[in-house]
Amino acid sequence: xxxxxxxxxxxxxxxxxxxxxxxxxxxxxxxxxxxxxxxxxxxxxxxxxxxxxxxxxxxxxxxxxxxxxxxxxxxxxxxxxxxxxxxxxxxxxxxxxxxxxxxxxxxxxxxxxxxxxxxxxxxxxxxxxxxxxxxxxxxxxxxxxxxxxxxxxxxxxxxxxxxxxxxxxxxxxxxxxxxxxxxxxxxxxxxxxxxxxxxx
Length: 200
Hints:
Blueprint: H1 3-16, H2 25-36, E1 40-41, E2 44-45, E3 69-71, E4 76-77, H3 79-83, E5 88-94, H4 105-116, E6 120-126, H5 138-147, E7 153-156, H6 163-166, E8 173-178, E9 183-187
Parallel strand pairs: 5-6, 6-7
Antiparallel strand pairs: 1-2, 3-4, 3-7, 5-8, 8-9
C-alpha cells in the first residue's frame, strides 16, 4: 500500500471515529446558553426570550390570569399568542357604553399603536354590550371597532374570564404585562406618556 493511500484511510478513519470527531455541538450549545439568558430592551425582556407564566389576578407583581378570548373575527387568543413577537402588552378593559367626558382613551390607544405597535401589543377587551345588560358579542366587537376606527386588537370577554379579575376600581382599567406574564401596571387611568416615548 502506498504512503498516500495509507494517509487517506487514516484521515477518513479519524473523522468517522466517535472519539476523534470534533465536538461541533459545543459551539452551538454555547450560543444556545447565551440565548436563554433574558436580554433586556428598554428595561423589558425581549419577546423571543421568555414564556409567559399565568396567575390568578392582575395586581402588580402577580402573573396575569390565563384566558382564551376571541377577536372580532372569532379567532382565538391566549396569553402566549398575545405576547408573541411583542415584549409587553397594555390591555384596556372597558365596555361599549363607556364614553369618558374629559378624555379619549381610544384615540390615545390608536396613536400609541401607530407609534409603538411593533414592540407593544395594545388591546381593548370588551365585556358587555350597551348598558351592561348583555355580554359582548362578535357583532358588537365588529361594530365597535368600525365606529372607533380601531387599528389595535379588540377582544371580547362575554363570559367574564378575566375582566373582573383585572378591574382596579371598575371599568375602565388599564393593565400592563411584561412578556414573562408579570403585571407591572394597573389603574383606571391609562399610563402617563411623554411625547415620543413608549407609555409603558
